[in-house]
Amino acid sequence: MTTKILKILEDFQSLKKGDILVCKFHRDTYKLAKRTRFASYEVQDNKLHQKEIILQKQNNVYFNYECFLMGDSNLISAMLVQAE
């Protein structure tokens, strides 16, 4: 298993549906029906034109990576986890 902390624009732009992200948030967000600040998610969509990563459609969990890169996001950190 390999991990990569996402830090730059290209890291986020390269994400695709099915990638696994481990995310830490400033405020509670949802993982299915539970509220949490730390969870793993399977990427549902990468909206490149809106600079958004959709993590969970059911509860509208997403983040804008442009805001994250400027330090203005609920997201504190994101790590990509991949099987070798």
Layout of secondary structure:
Blueprint: E1 2-5, H1 9-13, E2 20-31, E3 34-42, E4 45-47, E5 52-56, E6 61-64, H2 65-69, E7 75-82
Antiparallel strand pairs: 1-7, 2-3, 2-7, 4-5, 5-6
Overall 3D form: globular
Contiguous low-pLDDT stretches (5 residues minimum) are: none
Q: Which range does the strand content fall in?
A: over 45%
Number of strands: 7
Quick check: average pLDDT? 96
State the distance separating the first and last CA atoms.
5 Å
Number of helices: 2
Biggest sheet record: 4 strands, antiparallel
What is the helix fraction of residues, given as a range?
10-25%
SSE order: EHEEEEEHE
Total domains: 1
Please identify the structural class as seen in this structure: mainly beta
CA radius of gyration: 12 Å
What's the gist of this structure?
The chain is mainly beta and 84 residues long.
Characterization of this structure:
The chain has 84 residues and is mainly β. The chain has one domain. The chain contains 2 helices and 7 strands. A 4-stranded antiparallel sheet has the order 1-7-2-3, with no helix packed on it. A 3-stranded antiparallel sheet has the order 4-5-6. A hairpin with a 4-residue loop joins strand 4 and strand 5. The longest helix is centred in the N-terminal third of the chain and has 5 residues, at 9-13. The N and C termini lie close together (5 Å).
